[in-house]
Write a structure and sequence with these properties.
GO terms for molecular function: hydrolase activity. This is Serine hydrolase. By secondary structure, the chain is of the alpha+beta class. It has a single domain, classed as Beta-lactamase, CATH 3.40.710. It has 12 helices and 13 strands. The strands form 4 sheets. Strands 2-1-13-12-11-8 form a 6-stranded antiparallel beta sheet, with helices on both faces. A 3-stranded antiparallel beta sheet has the order 3-5-4. Helix 3 packs antiparallel against helix 12 and helix 4 (114-126) crosses helix 9 (214-226). The longest helix has 28 residues, at 2-29. The protein starts with a helix and ends with a helix.
Amino acid sequence: MKFSQNFGLLILLLLNFSCSNESDTETEKIETPAVITPIPLETYFPPISRTDEWETISMKTLGWNEDKVADLYTYLDDNNTDAFLVLKDGRIVIEKYFGDFKQDDNHTWNSAGKPLTSMLTGIAQQEGLLAITDPTTRYLGEGWSSMNSEKELAITIENQLTMTTGLDYTVDDDFCTDPECLKYLNAPSTKWYYHNAPYTLIDDVIASATNKDFNSYFSEKIKEPIGMQGLFIEVGYNNVYFSTARSMARFGILNLNKGIWKGTTILSDQTYFNAMTNTSQELNLSYGYLYWLNGKSSFRVPGSEEEFTGSLIPNAPADLFAGLGLNDQKLYMVPSLDLIVIRMGDASNEELLGPTGFDNDLWGFINEIIE
């Protein structure tokens, strides 16, 4: 009887030990679930008072291919880049500076700054200070060109915004804004040509209409309300904007939010905004009011009278619109992806105004990361 009881106790202990081991084994097999960081969907607006503060989001969180970033950096470095930024929903994903260039260094925008002037023109119009259908003469006075008064009066601010003034672009210096350089060639709105002089004169139009210095009006209406820094500086005949890459990013965010900055309306006229960022005339489908447009069936480029078939930047999203400047200054904005891409630096290859082959090559590298 005693042996039987001891044997039974032994069996019971063995069973408990076995069950305990199985339970421990099952516990060991349970894996801790991975922590998934949600992608924020709302737009981020960096603080106005703290220009050094800016939210970031990782490529891993976005599901982007980090393995391809090294190839992108090599391409940018090989092509004389100083600053490169990518933002998603206002948050910085990529921020890279090359050589001695630093985050706080200022860089010229060149013609990538033309959209600044375009938006400022829209603000002046919504305040009732001008109308883009007004003749340029109303603000510059008779004799701003070498044409007679009738031909001068035919040119409007809208012609200046769309590169359709008809002024002679075959003059020795098409940047020259002196009256002797501004000659009649075609009737307004009958020819598209990338002519810088009429664009530059928009600054004087705005200054006259607002009765304020151009830099002061820009600072009051756009720069300070969105926390930009920088300045328009006269370089020869041109009035060129200089700022940090992050200030360019702020303007990009303002554009993707259609002129509204965190509840503060900078440009309320949505009719103007839509006209500004869409085809403005039938002569160059890829041009708005000083903005370049992707995804159209044809395009023209600076320095040429030829029309090319196809999209401006085939590798880029069709809804991209941009500020594009000499020596490959780039401000790309993509509404469908809420994406901003900025490149500042020296010329990647040839010193060309506006669009270059660099655009399409660069987007090839970007696509390998974001797709």
